[in-house]
Specification:
By secondary structure, the protein is α/β, with parallel strands linked by helices. Helix content is 62%, strand content 6%. It contains 31 helices and 11 strands. The strands form 2 sheets. A 9-stranded mixed β-sheet has the order 4-3-5-2-6-1-7-8-9, with helices on both faces. A two-stranded antiparallel sheet has the order 10-11. β8, α20 and β9 form a beta-alpha-beta unit. α22 runs antiparallel to α26. It is flat.
């Protein structure tokens, strides 16, 4: 995140630029990059002329700095050249108030980057002249920049001065490339280059390097992640240039709204293309210590007793910020000094009944943003979980943790390897990561066997290694390859890192794991992420190029619309408007009918069959615990798991397969037939007048319904075959894969039946079972032998009472209603968008034809020049994307 900066009325900037360049520049053309480069051009000219002597070294450095932001291939290059001439001609660099018009929109970090580039130019000939420094100081004062920071930049770049390490660190934090991620990628690259130079200069003999942040940057190799970020930055530059291009030609092209929406989506996907890594395991396996070792700093709370009390998310931020998220939906910012306290269980809870503490905790997630989390600065987000083995909401929490993660680190204890609970948890993780499949190994799971330093005998270490290899890589393997299994000591590695003993074998082992994790993230997950961004970009460029070609053919007279064709197009526009209006009415009505029908069936199921199903499931419940509270906890967790499984199975079989699928199949058949009719209509127009309308529509259809092949209208039997063999396995057109292979749920943004029993259920179970004597929160005691059947009965009774509460019934009904609404509204929204594009193609063709009739030959020639220039710019963009 970049610190907010006041936003200038860009009309003023546009007027000033128009004066400097002698060209008409509109406020819409004034992007943040244009503002920054305008300020930079003025400042660099001012530095160069400050001592009244411009050397060859300064000329070359000035050109190199400006070309870093605006290369010759950029559509803004000509504007930059005119701006430089205008700055010199109007002596703008001497008018600091005029320069302030540009700089007042910049944030503190952006102005510091500007000044750093100014000092770099001033040092081009080896020394900083007093007049040059005075000029830069005046600008810093006018912009209210702390002069100790500018002095630090000067002292760092100079060869005969010493810089304060703390101030160097402050400058490096201000110029951290991550602060500029929301802007054009060239900002990130420039900030990274300046930071690297300052760091290099600062770490010479003239400057102390005791700062842990500086040392970590020198010793930690994140080259794979850095290369991936460079690729991201390059793509951001392509998208930014595409936006500039469309702004430049907007009044000439009149592109459909969907293109701008798609560009915004691509930009959003680029900005959110981070790697999310979760660390899971049982209590007291050293998860927090491992995180601290990976980060090189003791951020996570660590105690000898179990201490992680909530899910914590660690990510990079330009300043320290802690956000607490609560079960009731609240978010609260809190001081950093409370972070470790909030992230941990209290000592009483950790030493006593931590299950009650976890179940009743209101705080469910903590987010920590920190500028010195070195790994996170490379685009990695780390998720630390509480121990899952005895968590009362283990299934829900496991699914929450593993949702949308790129990699999972499962931590186990070498001193008590592969307990039964750990084996079950590993199998649960495999099932979650493989979307319900249990027979395939997991590609994005890493298992780290911790505390290897505590095994003193070589024989013990070998036996532990063989045990894990047999379980994880033997028959029915859990891991996809041996490189996913590592034997480490997180504490020994962290101790050595803090002491600076980077040659320690445990540090090297951790670094080896870090390298393999980076390679997996960047080469496997990262490639997929970027392909999902690049493919739509190519499609967008093709769509825009075809739009331009269409406009050109009309202007050049290759497309002629007769009166009969015009009437036909008008009729087709009316038919499409009528169709989508009718579809909206039909979907709204059918959605309401299906919601009412399925909710009625849910009520019948809960009244008649649900309890019997859970009773049958309970016959399989078992536990090795003998302590009353532990047995209750184990059976409560099984009740929760069986409840969710039963409700999901009912939803799949009854709500989806028996009720919704037949209705959705009919709707999709009608949508398919309408799409084919749109296609046929445009194909007929193309055949008569030589346009490209059909191909342009198909590009849009394939973006929304990628699995749908449009060839011809189908009869009911053909559609039945197509549905059963292809589309229907994902619950229809573009539904997001509600059912994958008929089994696994994967509906985005639909929360199916979150855990129906809260922590308060524990007290309810105890109260409901008179045979249990005392509440769980009191003295626990032991059974001899344990009365398992009585406890099962009491858990079931208390669970059924909880399920019958208004809150839980409403939650289930809302989940079903949301599912039905999602499936119907997705169809309506998708078809509305395609129809909008269909109508745009027809209306745009008519508008082009009408405009053609009004243009003089001279105006037509100018219009063609604009289209040709736009096509050239698009070709350059395609080359940069290639």
């Amino acid at each position: 995140m970049i610190a907010a900066a006041p936003v200038t009325d860009r009309t003023t900037i546009a007027k000033l630029l128009s004066q400097l360049t002698n060209q008409e520049i509109s406020p819409a053309q004034v992007s943040k990059l244009v503002v920054f480069v305008s300020a930079l051009s003025t400042l660099l000219v001012g530095v160069a002329f400050a001592d009244r002597q411009v050397t060859e070294a300064e000329k070359k450095r000035l050109v190199a700095i400006l070309n870093e932001f605006i290369p010759k291939s950029s559509s803004l290059y000509n504007l930059l050249q005119l701006m430089l001439k205008g700055v010199i001609a109007h002596q703008l660099h001497h008018k600091l108030q005029a320069l302030r018009i540009f700089t007042q929109e910049l944030s503190e970090s952006e102005i510091l980057l500007l000044l750093s580039l100014g000092y770099e130019l001033a040092m081009a000939d080896g020394t900083i002249d007093a007049a040059e420094e005075d000029y830069l100081v005046q600008i810093a004062q006018q912009s209210e920049i702390d002069l100790t920071l500018t002095h630090t930049i000067k002292a760092t770049l100079a060869t005969d001065m010493t810089a304060d390490p703390d101030l160097v660190l402050e400058v490096l934090l201000q110029l951290d490339p991550a602060r500029f991620r929301a802007l054009d990628p060239v900002f990130c690259r420039a900030a990274e280059r300046i930071s690297d130079r300052l760091l290099t200069e600062a770490t010479q003999s003239k400057t102390s390097v005791d700062s842990p942040a500086i040392n970590s940057k020198i010793t930690t190799d994140y080259s794979d992640l850095e290369k991936f970020q460079t690729r991201q930055h390059s793509l951001k530059q392509v998208v930014g240039n595409l936006e500039l291009l469309l702004n430049k030609y907007d009044e000439h092209l009149s592109l459909p709204k969907s293109i701008y929406e798609d560009i915004a989506t691509v930009q959003q996907n680029l900005n959110s293309a981070i790697f999310r890594v979760a660390i899971v395991g049982e209590f007291s396996q050293g998860k927090s210590t491992l995180l601290n070792a990976l980060l090189g700093e003791e951020i996570q709370p660590v105690r000898a007793i179990p201490c992680s009390g909530t899910v914590t998310v660690l990510r990079y931020g330009p300043q320290i910020q802690v956000i607490g998220r609560y079960r009731d939906g609240r978010e609260e910012e809190m001081p950093f000094d409370q972070y470790q306290e909030k992230a941990a269980l209290s000592e009483d809870a950790a030493l006593g009944n931590r299950e009650d503490a976890l179940a009743n905790a209101d705080l469910f997630e903590l987010v920590l943003e920190h500028p010195q989390l070195t790994l996170c600065k490379q685009g990695v987000e780390l998720v630390d979980s509480p121990g899952l083995n005895e968590h009362p909401e283990r299934s829900r929490l496991t699914q929450q943790l593993l949702d949308n993660v790129d990699a999972v680190i499962f931590l186990v204890n070498a001193q008590r390897p592969l307990t039964q609970g750990e084996r079950e948890l590993l199998l649960d993780v495999r099932k979650c990561l493989n979307y319900g499949q249990t027979a395939q190994p997991v590609n994005n799971l890493f298992v780290l066997v911790n505390f290897m330093d505590l095994l003193r005998r070589q024989q013990d270490r070998q036996q532990v290694q063989q045990l894990f290899e047999r379980f994880l890589l033997g028959e029915n393997p859990i891991l996809s390859q041996p490189e996913r299994l590592h034997f480490i000591s997180a504490q020994a590695a962290l101790d050595a890192i803090i002491k600076g003993e980077m040659g320690d074998p445990y540090v090297q082992g951790l670094q080896n794991f870090s390298r393999l994790l980076q390679a997996f993230l960047t080469e496997e997950r990262g490639t997929v992420k970027l392909k999902k961004i690049v493919s739509p970009l190519y499609g967008l460029l093709q769509q825009i190029e075809e739009e331009i070609q269409e406009h050109r053919k009309v202007i050049e007279g290759e497309i002629i619309i007769s009166a009969a064709n015009k009437q036909k197009i008008i009729e087709q526009i009316g038919q499409a408007v009528g169709y989508v209006s009718k579809l909206e009415i039909d979907i709204t009505r059918t959605q309401a009918e299906q919601q009412q029908n399925i909710l009625g069936r849910l009520s019948c199921f809960l009244d008649a069959q649900f309890q019997d199903t859970l009773q049958q499931c309970s016959k399989e419940w078992s536990t090795q615990h003998t302590e009353k509270g532990k047995i209750q906890q184990a059976f409560l967790a099984k009740f929760q798991d069986d409840t969710n499984t039963t409700l999901q199975e009912w939803t799949e079989k009854e709500a989806l397969q028996r009720n919704l699928l037949p209705v959705l199949k009919d709707f999709d058949y009608g949508i398919h037939q309408m799409l084919v009719e749109f296609q046929d209509n445009l194909a007929a127009i193309d055949g008569e007048i030589g346009s490209y309308l059909e191909n342009q529509l198909n590009l849009e259809v394939q973006k929304i319904f990628p699995q749908l092949k449009l060839h011809k209208k189908m009869d009911a039997d053909d559609w039945e075959t197509m549905w059963n063999t292809g589309i229907g396995s994902g619950v229809g057109l573009g539904a997001g894969g509600v059912v994958v292979g008929g089994l696994a749920f994967a509906v985005s943004s639909i929360a199916f039946f979150p855990i129906v029993l809260s922590g308060a259920a524990i007290a309810g179970i105890a109260a409901a079972g008179a045979a249990l004597g005392t509440a769980i929160g009191g003295t626990l005691g032991f059974f001899a032998p344990p009365d398992f059947e009585t406890i099962k009965k009491d858990v079931l009774n208390a669970g059924f009472q909880q399920l019958a509460t208004t809150e839980n019934i409403d939650r289930m009904r809302q989940s079903i209603s949301t599912l039905v609404e999602h499936l119907f509204q997705q169809r309506l929204t998708s078809m509305q968008r395609i129809t909008e594009d269909y109508l745009y193609l027809l209306n745009s063709l008519l508008e082009d034809w009408e405009q053609k009739q009004r243009l003089t030959p001279e105006q037509a020639a100018l219009q063609l020049e604009v289209y040709q220039e736009c096509q050239r710019d698009l070709s350059l963009l395609r080359e940069s994307l290639d």
